[in-house]
Amino acid sequence: MTRPDIAAIVLAAGKGSRMGSDLHKVLHVLGGQTMLGRVLSTLDQLKAARSITVVGAGRDQIHAAYPALDTMVQDSQLGTGHAVRCALPGLDGFDGTLLVLYGDVPLIRAGTLQALADLVQGDTALAVLGFRPQDPRAYGRLVTDDQGALERIVEFSDATDAERAIDFCNSGILAGRADVLRRLLPQIRNDNAKGEYYLTDVVALARAEGHRIATAQAEPLEVTGVNSQAELAALEQQLTEHADG
C-alpha cells in the first residue's frame, strides 16, 4: 500500500569525475544492479508516494536507463541545499515528510528510511540519519542532547577536540516536513569556502525557529557512498562478505 505521507528526493546530479569513466557514476553496477537502481528499489519497498531524482551532467544516460523516472534538473553544481530546492517544484502539492537521499549511497535500507521518516511528527520538523563508523575520520559530527535530539552538525575542520571525539557522524540523509523545508531552504546562504548551499545548514535554521531535530542511526554499510572505482570495488567486497556472513 502506497504511503501518501512520504515522498523522496534522490540527488544524482554530480559529475562523478573521480570515477574516471564516461558512464554516469550512479549507473555503475554494484552487486548486479546499478547504484541508482538499488536506491529506487528501496523506495519501491518503502512505498513512497512520489520521488524526484535530481539530475545534471550526463542526465541523458540516466533518462536512457530509466525512461519513466521523474526528474528535475540542477544545471549548476551549487551544493546539496540547492539541489533539493531544484527538486521541490516537482513535488508541488505534497505536504508530508520528504526524504533526501543520494544516488551514490546505494545500500540504504527501506526499514531505516521508514524509521527516520517516522520521527518527523509533532514538534519534530527534521530527522537526521547518523552512523558510528570504525574510523570517524573527517566526517561531520552530530552533537546531540541527552534525549538524542540534534543540537548541531559540526564539520570536522571546524570541530573542537571534544567534538572530534564524538563518534556519531552525519550520513547526509535526512527527513523533514515538506512545508518546513520549502520555507527554510531559500534562507540557506553560500558564504563558505566553496560558495555552495549546504543542506546541513537547514538544521540550524530549523532550531532557530524552535523546531526539534531528531536523530536515527544506520549501520555504516548502509550509508557508505561511492566516489571512485576503488570505493566501488571495496563496497562490492563488503557487500559480498556481508551476504556470506
Report a brief summary of the structure.
The chain contains eight helices and eleven strands. It has 245 residues and is an alpha/beta fold.
What fraction, in percent, of the residue positions are helical? 25-40%
| Mean of pLDDT | 95
Give the strand line-up of the largest sheet.
5-4-1-6-10-7-11
The biggest beta sheet reads:
7 strands, mixed
DSSP helix count?
A: 8
The total count of strands amounts to: 11
Please, could you describe this protein's structure?
The chain is of the alpha/beta class. Helix content is 29%, strand content 26%. The protein has helices spanning 35-46, 59-65, 80-87, 110-118, 161-164, 178-184, 201-208, 229-244, and strands at residues 3-12, 29-30, 33-34, 48-55, 71-73, 97-102, 124-131, 141-144, 150-154, 169-177, 212-218. The strands form 3 sheets. The protein has a 7-stranded mixed β-sheet with strand order 5-4-1-6-10-7-11, with helices on both faces. Helix 1 crosses helix 4 (110-118). It is globular, with a radius of gyration of 17 Å. It starts with a strand and ends with a helix.
